[in-house]
């Protein structure tokens, strides 16, 4: 992919840089932009990657990975517009922002690939979904997928599904963290020390995730294997259903999808 510049070295931006380094990408072929000097110096010391301005990044890099907050996208694209052309590849990691926004703000024929990653990128276990824009070729998509495999797994989806992806896997880790937090509190309520409750729940989550990842059985079958007749688990499941946990989760994910749509519409003008 040549030189890659990450525009915005927050948690996701740093995670991508770290994954690329771990995957064998030379530090000399990586750049990043960061508006806070202390943060920039810290990352350069940690990874040996140069911190540059946006203009320098656009001049030196073939791939520009946009990892800023959605509210910061307009000034960044205004700065990029006179600096890029069809030889640049723009990769958007910004939630809710469609490729048409980039195509409208940047010169004609600049290829854009939209990506929805998630925070397990920090530990090399991201789930990322990619969607090509109007000018992105299959080769561009393959290049982006290869880049993202250094930090997890990748799937290609039509861009129309990206808001759903954002709600499901982009925000998904927060749902699991919320559930783990509640279960630890339940352990404390039942008289367990916090450290013990946390160890029990976190390891249970790790084991359950590994069983799911094997993919040999449907989640329903895995749950049923734990649910003995007249046992403890079926009593717990009955209470979850009685309190509408499944319906609440469906509603929560729909709300996240709706917010992703709103973020995109905010930049339609």
UniProtKB/TrEMBL annotation:
Binding site for NADP(+): 67-70
Pfam families hit by this protein: F420_oxidored, P5CR_dimer
Pathway the protein acts in: Amino-acid biosynthesis; L-proline biosynthesis; L-proline from L-glutamate 5-semialdehyde: step 1/1
UniProt KW keywords: Amino-acid biosynthesis, Cytoplasm, NADP, Oxidoreductase, Proline biosynthesis
Subcellular locations according to the entry: Cytoplasm
InterPro entries xref list: 6-PGluconate_DH-like_C_sf, Acid_Pase_AS, NAD(P)-bd_dom_sf, P5C_Rdtase_cat_N, P5CR-like_CS, P5CR_dimer, Pyrroline-COOH_reductase
Domain Pyrroline-5-carboxylate reductase dimerisation residue range list: 159-263
GO biological process terms held by the UniProt record: L-proline biosynthetic process
Entry EC number(s): 1.5.1.2
Family: Belongs to the pyrroline-5-carboxylate reductase family.
HAMAP family referenced in this protein's UniProt entry, alphabetically: P5C_reductase
Job description of the protein: Catalyzes the reduction of 1-pyrroline-5-carboxylate (PCA) to L-proline.
Protein name in UniProt: Pyrroline-5-carboxylate reductase
């Amino acid at each position: 992919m040549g030189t890659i510049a990450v525009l915005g070295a927050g948690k996701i931006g740093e995670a991508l840089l770290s994954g690329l380094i771990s995957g064998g990408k030379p530090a000399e072929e990586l750049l990043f932009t960061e508006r806070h000097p202390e943060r920039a110096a810290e990352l350069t010391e940690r990874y040996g990657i140069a911190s540059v301005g946006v203009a320098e990044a656009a001049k030196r890099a073939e791939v520009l990975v946009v990892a800023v907050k959605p509210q910061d996208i307009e000034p960044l694209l205004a700065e990029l517009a006179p600096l890029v052309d069809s030889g640049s590849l723009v990769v958007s990691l910004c939630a809710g922002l469609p490729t048409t926004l980039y195509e409208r703000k940047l010169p004609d024929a600049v290829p854009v690939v939209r990506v929805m990653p998630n925070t397990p990128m920090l530990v090399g276990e991201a789930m990322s979904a990619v969607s090509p824009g109007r000018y992105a070729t299959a080769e561009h998509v393959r290049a982006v997928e290869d880049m993202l495999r250094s930090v997890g797994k990748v799937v290609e989806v039509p861009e129309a599904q990206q808001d759903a992806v954002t709600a499901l896997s982009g925000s998904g880790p927060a749902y699991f963290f919320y559930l783990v937090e509640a279960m630890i509190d339940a352990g404390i309520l039942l008289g367990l020390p916090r450290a013990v409750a946390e160890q029990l729940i976190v390891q249970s989550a790790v084991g359950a995730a590994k069983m799911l990842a094997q993919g040999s059985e449907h989640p329903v079958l895995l749950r049923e294997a734990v649910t003995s007749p007249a046992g403890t688990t079926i009593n717990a499941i009955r209470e979850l259903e009685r309190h509408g946990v499944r319906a609440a989760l469906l509603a929560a994910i729909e709300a996240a999808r709706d917010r992703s749509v709103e973020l995109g519409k905010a930049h339609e003008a």
